[in-house]
Amino acid sequence: MMDPRSNLMDESFQERQRERQMVLTPEPEQNGFVEVIATIGAFIFMLLTFPISVFMIFKVVQEYERAVIFRLGRLRSGGARGPGIFFVLPCIDVYTKVDLRTVSFDVPPQEVLTKDSCTVCVDAVVYFCIDDPLKCVISVENFNHSTRLLAATTLRNVLGTRNLSEILSERENISHTMQSALDVATEPWGVKVERVEIKDVRLPVQMQRAMAAEAEATREARAKVIAAEGEMKAARSLKEASDVIAESPAALQLRYLQTLNTISAEKNSTIVFPLPMDLIAPFMSHFKK
């Protein structure tokens, strides 16, 4: 069973979209009596001031600009003009230039409470451009200011659903999520969000100290584990070496002599054997039995 409230919301959203599309699609101009008189008067004024009016009726927009023209309050058919030269009638035509180049702005640092109840201060950079000049002029009063406010709100909403560890380690994923959310919200305004980047994540001093202590404890525990593993491997190697030496009396005697040589070299001393090593062999064999 579908929720009737969701159906009503979908229908209302579709209705608003249809109304917006009707506004953005200029109807064929049906000039009334007043419009005709105003247009004739504009032509007469243009002819009377011909040498000067040339500078008033011809306008130029650059390659990266478009001009949205209104005649007596109505959007002129044909869409946005440009790039190049276009014609306007004095007194009755009003035009607005729209810059299509990519614009970037800094989102002010936002204090956000994360999902695991940690307070962080995060700022970001947003890159956007105008995708539809007609929508950005008609649908919203100030698309630049509105996009800035929406970016700050979206940043707080997205970070509020993440843990602190995710914010610190998954910046790229958070940036893509913000870009998708902003792009969907600004599409009716004719704005295309191209890129969002998280600049910096600042933590409180107490949180930094706690994280530093946790990292230090983790490193110490890891060092102790590595040292214990090294001692275990060394003990196993010594056991294997002792087994090999025990199997050969000659190897044991050579090891004994090598140890004596090392001791005499370090302390610069002379070692005297109390008795020959061959006399100890019967006792060693008896000890082995």
From TrEMBL:
Pfam families linked to this entry: Band_7
InterPro entries per record: Band-7_stomatin-like, Band_7, Band_7/SPFH_dom_sf, Band_7/stomatin-like_CS, Stomatin_HflK_fam
Protein family (similarity comment): Belongs to the band 7/mec-2 family.
Major location (coarse): membrane
Record flagged with keyword Acyltransferase: no
Residue ranges of domain Band in the record: 56-215
Top-rank taxon: Eukaryota
Keyword entries, A-Z: Membrane, Transmembrane, Transmembrane helix
Regions that span the bilayer: 36-61
PROSITE patterns hit by this protein: BAND_7
Organism: Riptortus pedestris
Keyword Transferase: no
PANTHER family xrefs: AT06885P-RELATED, BAND 7 PROTEIN-RELATED
Subcellular localization, as worded in the UniProt entry: Membrane
CC terms in the record's Gene Ontology section: plasma membrane
Protein name: Prohibitin, putative
